[in-house]
Write a structure and sequence with these properties.
Blueprint: E1 2-6, H1 12-15, E2 23-26, E3 34-37, E4 53-56, H2 66-71, E5 76-77, H3 84-99, H4 102-110, H5 116-126, E6 139-143, H6 147-158, E7 162-166, H7 172-177, E8 183-184, H8 188-194, E9 197-200, H9 214-217, E10 224-228, H10 237-245, E11 249-254, E12 267-269, H11 278-298, E13 319-326, H12 331-341, E14 346-354, E15 357-364, H13 370-377, E16 382-389
Parallel strand pairs: 1-2, 1-3, 3-4, 4-5, 6-7, 6-9, 7-8, 9-10, 10-11, 11-12
Antiparallel strand pairs: 13-15, 13-16, 14-15
Helix pairs in contact: 3-6
Length: 390
């Protein structure tokens, strides 16, 4: 029986995918096999030794101590693409809110004191101040061509926009999905210099912190619109505020309210609504539960932010050893030697690595005793060992 600790409300359509005869779900179990989170901050939490995997029903993992979990051999799984449509639609809405001055116009109408013909006359006299511009023919620069960036690009093309994208690490899968009409840029600076709108869709990490800084803001066209539905920290808020105050940028649309921008006339801040749709929450829940189950039951790792992808068959005739280890020389040889000494025949062996971590999967035909498991755990560089038996 697997124990799952659920630390945030997760859509029932996902949690229902855990079979009751194999899983128990609780928010306060002390020895879970897996932890499920949405926004719960694990950075300062105690993560029990029993935990084998952490699942995030969403994309960002800044609230999860990934480096610490990596040292313990614990995969962190997320759900890229599950909320992509929700964010795509919000990005398009953000461009329209900015280009048509919708928020200011709405506030103006709500503040009218006149009625009837007087109100109609007042509106006709003042509506010019809210005149905007159309998206068609404008240039959109997209930084990050993952699941969300590709969807935004393709939609913008259908709206008649010129679209440029920058992503030096675009995957083959996303490249195939991207419209042929999207112009690939080889430098961020070139993209910024040409775009009327710039939208960011990259994870927050050391390489992307303050990706848009004062130096790069200076490259932007006058009256450019900046959109950030990615992560707080991607943009240097102080540098952006100065550019807004100096009228170098028309507006900033973001999903991360900050004290610097509160009540600023050129800023529209939303309360982190990117994935806040019923459909996105359902998609994330179903996806993360499937991935956690596949890891616990079969050893498969998919959509991990720290371990390599390893897809495994559920067909098993003996014992499957699942070993998380450091990506260093001679690991497979040492593991194989321990099994040979125990007279265990290897039916299949997979070893995949990602940066400093590796994942070794070995199917053997016989049962594996706890003493052998302990010998494997004692090999220098082995981080976690578990087994699945028929």
């Amino acid at each position: 029986m697997f124990k799952i600790q659920v630390l945030n409300p997760i859509a029932a359509i996902g949690l229902d995918q855990f079979p009751a005869d194999l899983y128990t779900l609780s928010s306060d179990t002390t020895d879970p096999d897996a932890m499920l989170v949405r926004s719960y901050n694990l950075n300062h939490a105690t993560i029990p030794d029993s935990v084998k995997v952490v699942g995030r029903a969403g994309t960002g993992t800044n609230t999860i101590p990934v480096a610490t979990l990596s040292k313990r051999g614990i995969p962190v799984l997320n759900t890229p693409g599950a909320n992509a449509n929700a964010v795509r639609e919000l990005v398009i809405a953000g461009m329209l809110l900015s280009s048509r001055n919708i928020c200011k116009a709405w506030e103006y109408v709500n503040g009218l004191q006149s009625e009837g013909e007087a109100m109609e006359k007042e509106i006709e006299q003042n509506k010019k101040q809210f005149a905007g511009f159309e998206l068609m023919g404008k240039t959109l620069g997209i930084v990050g061509l993952g699941s969300i960036g590709v969807k935004v690009a393709n939609t913008a093309i259908s709206l008649g926009m010129r679209v440029m994208g920058y992503d030096p690490a675009i995957t083959v899968k996303h490249a195939w999905e991207l419209s042929a009409n999207v112009q690939r840029e080889h430098s961020l600076e070139t993209l910024l210099a040409q775009a009327d709108f710039v939208t960011f869709h990259v994870p927050l990490m050391d390489a992307t912190k303050n990706l848009l800084n004062a130096t790069r803001i200076a490259l932007l066209k006058k009256n450019a619109v900046i959109l950030n539905f990615s992560r707080e920290g991607i943009i240097d808020n102080q540098a952006l505020l100065q550019a807004l105050n100096e009228n170098k940028i028309q507006s900033y649309i973001c999903d991360f309210p900050h004290a610097n921008f509160k009540q600023h006339p050129r800023v529209i801040c939303l309360p982190h609504l990117g994935a806040s749709t019923r459909e996105a929450e359902d998609n994330c829940a179903v996806m993360v539960v499937k991935q956690v189950r596949d890891y616990l039951e079969n050893g498969t790792i998919v959509n991990s932010v720290n371990f390599p992808t390893v897809e495994l068959s559920s067909h098993l005739s003996g014992t499957r050893l699942l070993i998380a280890n450091a990506n260093i020389p001679n690991m497979v040889a040492q593991i194989s030697t321990e099994l040979a000494v125990a007279k265990l025949n290897i039916a299949s062996l997979i070893n995949q690595s990602r940066d400093e971590l590796a994942y070794t999967v070995i199917d053997v035909e016989q049962p594996v005793s706890e003493m052998i498991m302990e010998h494997l755990r004692n090999i220098p560089g082995v981080l976690q060992v578990r087994k699945i038996s028929v």
